[in-house]
Amino acid sequence: MLTVQTHSRPMAPGHHSLMKAFNDRAQAAGWSFTCAPAQDFENAPLADALEVWRAKAQGRPMPCRADLTARAMKPYLTHMSLLERISAGGAQRYRIRLHGSTLARYAGDSTGKFLEDSVSAERLESYTALYDTALALRAPMRVVSYYQAPEIDYLMGESLLAPLAVPGSNTPILLSVTYTKPRPEFTRASSAAFA
To answer: Cα–Cα distance between 191 and 64 in angstroms, integer?
Structure first.
């Protein structure tokens, strides 16, 4: 019998309530995201990426952006995004600083773009709320998403979403590592079509 151990850290007070508030809002609005503590990943590379994040934090609340070098993140680079929240004209916006090539293959390359230039207007609020929740938590979390864009609505994704400190700034940037697979209902439908 194979036993898998999951090493999770206790969550700070308030983290569960922030995630529950996001999940309740997502369910009420019909958003395609759910979030949970960063544990029990289905994709093993996400658990590995979380361990890199923790090792680089060296006991601090989060690692610095500079701690996660290309060498340290090499196994995940093509599945990785970096997002920063900036103030522009009195509003908060997210800029995608990096969008990995595997992600770009199915969603288009968004490197250097603002979120509203990469996500449709009807889905923008859900992404912004998710990233705002991640920044409020200042802790890593697991995100499951069912993509809604017509060209990729057959996919679901699992992500590690984690903050990275930026020297001289009170606002971390966000590391997202995402792996996708076909949604179960599409897998069953495809199998039935070829039976």
So the answer is: 45
What is the CATH topology of the domain spanning 31-193? Beta-Lactamase (3.30.450)
Q: What is the pLDDT of residues 11-42, one digit of tens each?
A: 566 788 999 999 999 999 999 999 999 999 99
Distances (CA, A) of 92 to 13, 88, 128, 129, 167: 26, 6, 9, 11, 20
The alpha-helical segments, DSSP class H, found in 58-120 are: 101-107, 115-118
pLDDT of residue 48: 97
In contact, 137 and 21? CB cutoff 8 Å: no
Q: Which of 39, 49, 47 shows the shortest CA–CA distance to 19?
A: 39
The ranges assigned to domains in the chain are 31-193
Least confident segment among 3-12, 28-37, 136-145 = 3-12
Q: In the predicted model, what is the mean pLDDT of the chain?
A: 86
| Phi, psi torsion values for 99, nearest 5 degrees | -140, 110
